[in-house]
Amino acid sequence: MRFTLKSKEADERPVFITGNFNKWNPRDLVFELTEIEESTYSIDIDDEKLPEFIEYKFTRGGWGNVEIDRLGNITPNRKIAKNDLDSEDEVERWRVNWGPFKQEFFPIVEIISEKFFIPQLNKTRKIWALLPYNYHQTKKDYPVLYLQDAQNLFNEGSAFGNWEIDKKMSILAEYGRGDVIIIAIENGSDDRIKEYVLDYNSITENAEGKKYVRFLADTLKPYVDSVYRTKPEREFTGIGGSSLGGLISIYSGFLYPEVYSKLMIFSPSLWLNPENNFPQMNFKNPYDIKVYLYGGEHEGSEMTERIHLFQQTMEGWEDSTSMQFEFKTSINHEGKHQEFYWSQEFPRAIEWLYYDTEEDPKELAQKAEIVKNETSEI
Fold it and tell me: Which of 187, 95, 204 is nearest to 147 (CA)?
């Protein structure tokens, strides 16, 4: 069966077809189209690889670069029967790095405190809350994700760029998957290294990581649960960060498994603990932990090798403890140690950690339509 596509928007990125015939993989090289003339693409797919009723979409290599309509809205799945004539389609526009972003879905950004007191460290810290866009129009309770390095998460003007989590949460909300509260904790600037490591005096003296981890679990989380409509149970609570922020998030999850069940670990500084001798906390309870691991092949310090070794070590714990780990490891062959790449990975990690499914465009389109209707009623 032949699929032919005309793109109304000029774009040099390669085109892929994805659907219920390849598990909705948006960048399957087997299903890359060939440009037969300017902005016109084609692919022949063996009928034996296709189901009787076909659902599909076109992408430019990922869900952050999927087809959209001329107004930037999600398009429904394309549908065709295998015994129909060959398919001829048009695409109005394409997402570019998850954009465009719609203001009506942006999260509500609140400052919890300019100087939130940390009794464990005898310091204060600025802490933010990003609430779902319709938080004040609902009575729902929400899962929570605690993220390190708030300075680099969403505010413009960061020296290193930022994750744009406000924009990415708006995209997730548009797809009906934005019901998560984000708590963003600013780092301690000059004290960042001390607070994000446990006892590695080779790079810092007077490491304060254990005290910082206690602050998150024993002080900040109870406060957040008392102020916001959260789902306080561990199965709805996650923690994450990048680089040293990723490392301290690993320690947080392992030292407080009764608090966190989800770890979002981007480019962790595992070189500080090459033996992976993480503290094995009291495993009397059979905790399950979901771990989303991301790294780029251009990050240096053997990043991807250390990530794979870390996963293997943790999986080995399952035999000697009551722990059960579920890993999702994502390696970007072009990835560098930069906020831009963590920003691109953030929506995928949120979805896997909190929605427990791969992206299914059919389900997303249905949820998006529900969200659209709810928004029009607010």
Answer: 187
> Exposed, middle or buried by CB within 10 Å (0-12, 13-18, 19+), for 199?
exposed
DSSP string, 164-177: -HHHHHHHHHHTT-
Q: Could you give the CA distance from residue 238 to residue 236 in angstroms, rounded to a whole number?
A: 7
Query: 0.90 exceeded by the pTM?
Result: no
Work out the percent of the chain whose per-residue pLDDT is above 90: 74
Q: Are residues 30 and 59 in contact, defined by beta-carbon separation less than 8 angstroms? A: no
Tokens of 209: 């990581």
Up-side HSE of residue 116: CA atoms within 13 Å toward CB?
22
Are the CB atoms for 16 and 58 separated by under 8 Å?
yes
- 378 lies in a domain? no
**Contact present, 283 and 321 (Cβ < 8 Å):** yes
Shared domain check, 227 and 180: yes
pLDDT (0 to 100) of residue 378: 42
How would you classify the pairing of strands 123-131 and 108-118? antiparallel
**Ranges assigned E (strand) in the chain:** 2-7, 16-19, 34-37, 40-44, 53-59, 67-68, 78-81, 87-91, 93-94, 108-118, 123-131, 144-147, 181-185, 237-242, 262-266, 288-296, 324-332
Number of domains observed in the structure of the chain: 2
β pairing state of 288-296 and 237-242? unpaired
Query: Which pLDDT score is estimated for 57?
Result: 97
How would residue 157 be classed by pLDDT, with cut points 50, 70 and 90? low
Please tell me the distance from the alpha carbon of residue 349 to that of residue 355, in angstroms, as a whole number: 10
Q: Domain limits at 69?
A: 2-94
What whole-number distance in Å separates Cα of residue 170 and Cα of residue 342? 16
CA–CA gap between residue 65 and residue 70 (Å, rounded): 14
Query: What is the pLDDT confidence band of residue 376, given thresholds at 50, 70 and 90?
Result: very low
84 lies in the same domain as 182: no
CA torsion angle 317 249 180 182 (round to 10)? 170
Phi and psi at 342, nearest 5°, equal: -65, -35
183 and 225 part of one domain? yes
